[in-house]
Task: structure prediction
Amino acid sequence: MTIERKSRLDTLAVTSLVACCFLWGLNQVAAKVAITEVPPLAQAAVRSLGGALLVFIWARLRGITLFGHDGSLRGGLLAGLLFAAEFGCIFLGLQFTTASRMAVFIYISPFIVALGMPFISKSEKLKRTQMAGLVIAFAGVAWGFAEGFTRPAAGDRQWLGDGLGVLAGVLWGATTLAIRGSKLSSTSAEKTLLYQLAISGAALALAAAVTGTAWAPTLSPLTWASLFFQVVIVTFASYLLWFWLIRHYPATRLAAFTLLTPVFGLLLGGWLLGEPITPRLVIALLAVASGIVLGNRS
Result:
């Protein structure tokens, strides 16, 4: 199957990306809300397995082939395991840091994609101004991370949660590279997403069973709403759209643009959860925004 790739982001791509970024920023808040009643690894497993079921039903209704022999199994296994590790880090990290900080730190991902994509596709090599933008964004993340050692707003182990957020960002970048550098780049978005959700769901469920952390006896309506939002809106709808974008638009431009998510994450965490928005974190966010501008210059 031939995939039509475009050299720059058009109106459809930009609109879709802004919507995805808003949902992903809100996702950290939703996960933080439910984490007191649903253990982190179990919550991550539920969202992956629930999303996998929805993707499977969607593909069957549309007649999309999911199990043909197309050489994508190896890439799918790798992407699925990286995806599991990424979200394991995010949900475990939310125990120790704020949703606002997590939303900022996981977006080190574009830096990883920018470094790795030239080894996969020479046509996506970044220019100096674009690389400078990503370096500025990375420096901003590092500046904000240092606050976890000097003035932790979420407790003495905030540095651990921040560190898991950074590691999650590295794993997200590695997942994007695994998709573009394997047979997954020419498979359907549904099959690519199903690989990640099914494999990560199984791995995270196993990890949750090993840790044995108990759920709350009863779940509040807010927790049920959080789980619905994570499974249906984020994991199914927005990720399906994201993988479609990866297959049709330059990965480095897409990854740089998703740095809008920390803006939404920071604002929503402060508004909905009352989390502190410190000057250092705002400076980090401004550096990330500057990286977006430079990273997407023609």
